Amino acid sequence: MHSRKFLKAVGLGAVLVAAVLLGACTTTNLGNNKTGWSDYATIAIKDYTVVGIVRVTSEEIKKRSIFGFVDSHKGSQITYDMLIKEAKALGADDIINVRIDRADESVHIPILEWLIGYTEKYSYIGNALAIKYKDAQSSFPQSNQAGSSGMGGGPISDRLSSTLLP
Description:
29% of the residues lie in helices and 33% in strands. It is an alpha+beta fold. Strand 1 and strand 2 form a beta hairpin.
């Protein structure tokens, strides 16, 4: 008899906990999610032509001693500047659709790594689409005022306050 009352109490408690947890759920409308100043900034609209695809490869090797301290470091990761340099060689102004992949080519022996040292070897492949800009569209306002970011009239603080304030 007591076990039946105990089971009813536990069941009622579980129902109450579930009701409290489900009652705390809310829904967020991400359709009007304007939270930062960049959501209100004017963006330059430019047409472009595709010049080609640029590809950069790089290798990075780190030799680590006991306890994982770096003894030597050769090579580097791929940077945006490396891709831009290749794009400029093709006559492009900029790059878009940048993708950099990293492949870990290290050989891992987990137990011995920290005791005898190890070598980390990474290969990087960077790809991007090289583009050349056409003239900016005429509907976009240009400004040569001091403090202008080149993306509209006046300093950004003036543009933001005029956009945000009624």
